[in-house]
Amino acid sequence: MSSVTLDHVSKQFGDAKGVEDVHIHIESGEFFTFLGPSGCGKTTTLRMIAGFYYPTRGRICFGSRDVTSLPPHKRNTGMVFQNYALFPHMTVFENIAFGLKVRKIPKVEMKERVERVMKLVRLEGYGERRIDQLSGGQQQRVALARALVIEPQILLLDEPLSNLDAKLREETRYEIKRLQMELGITTIYVTHDQAEAMSMSDRVMVMQGGEVQQVGTPHEIYHRPVNRFVASFIGETNLWEGIVAGIDGNEVRVRVAPDLVLTGYAHNVSPQVRLVPGETVVLSIRPETVQESTGADGENVVSGTVVLAEFTGACVNYVTSVGPHQLRSMSISQGRPLKQRGETISLHIPKASIYFAG
Ligand SMILES: Nc1ncnc2c1ncn2[C@@H]1O[C@H](COP(=O)(O)OP(=O)(O)OP(=O)(O)O)[C@@H](O)[C@H]1O
Ligand SMILES: [Mg+2]
């Protein structure tokens, strides 16, 4: 197992920016995820770690070893590509054995290692099948086995679940996590699915437009997003603009409408934001923190008209029109009758749930 350091790494494709100044240290044995929308630079960064692209600037180290100019086959990384890239004319066994054949591993050892890894990914008995006789999920596991069989120091997975249906995604997600924990292998995982990133990772790097927005634990990026992009990309949130009306110790009052002032805590602020009276600020309020209020008065109680009421079984979701804003709220269903569209509702926004995001 090995740690991975990207030391101010950039990749330029001619005039086009691939990624810009990525500076991270991934711990040995960590499950680390690159998360961001399409085209943000996830695959480019992963390919530089694998050695398929060389950085335009910066250095890449595995542990203390500088691998920046090493070709892929000398890096001892196992990679699962976005589209699996399996050999369709070969059997499952031949696909998995490929990397060992290239490395000239003796036949007996090769057979042993392929069988061990087939067991690990639960593909026992499938050795003689051709790839085109497998389901999407089974193909995905062949790709994973092919990466694992070379016993890599670092496992690189590029959207390995993107072609699977919802149920299979969830199962395979669990499988990958189980394998990673069992083998203790440093794993770098690429996805644009935030739920996947949140549930699997030790830490997540959120990217946009080739640049790193934030690196943190799932808890940090969810509860302490550094800017409004991260706040809205990770989970759902209400982003309300307002003007700082006053600061009193740790309490910050923000005017979000001519007749509506909300209070939050000054410590719930992104390091990129300065709270100054008269300045515009963006409040991030998570829907699950907003709850129906029994009274119409009180601090941070807002009233409005229901524009959307949704019952999902476990949850009740409302979208409420509050002055110039819309407020999404989400609560566990308690068997109470649902408010209907057009009805008035009062909602409480707890002070502690307001985060000043930018
Ligand atoms: N070989 C290349 N030549 C030119 N531009 C490239 C090349 N590879 C990637 N790019 C550009 O670099 C940027 C980042 O691409 P990358 O493939 O890393 O995105 P991604 O985050 O993996 O997206 P997706 O989620 O769609 O896979 C994009 O703007 C892309 O067009
Ligand atoms: Mg990609």
Automatic annotation (TrEMBL):
Residues 4-234 form the ABC transporter domain. InterPro entries: AAA+_ATPase, ABC_SmlMolc_Importer, ABC_transporter-like_ATP-bd, ABC_transporter-like_CS, Mo/tungstate-bd_C_term_dom, P-loop_NTPase, Transp-assoc_OB_typ2. SMART domains: AAA (SM00382). Keywords: ATP-binding, Nucleotide-binding, Transport. The keyword tRNA-binding does not apply. GO terms for molecular function: ABC-type transporter activity; ATP binding; ATP hydrolysis activity. SUPFAM superfamilies: MOP-like, P-loop containing nucleoside triphosphate hydrolases. GO terms for cellular component: ATP-binding cassette (ABC) transporter complex. Gene3D superfamilies: 2.40.50.100, P-loop containing nucleotide triphosphate hydrolases. This is Spermidine/putrescine ABC transporter ATP-binding protein. It comes from Brevibacillus aydinogluensis.
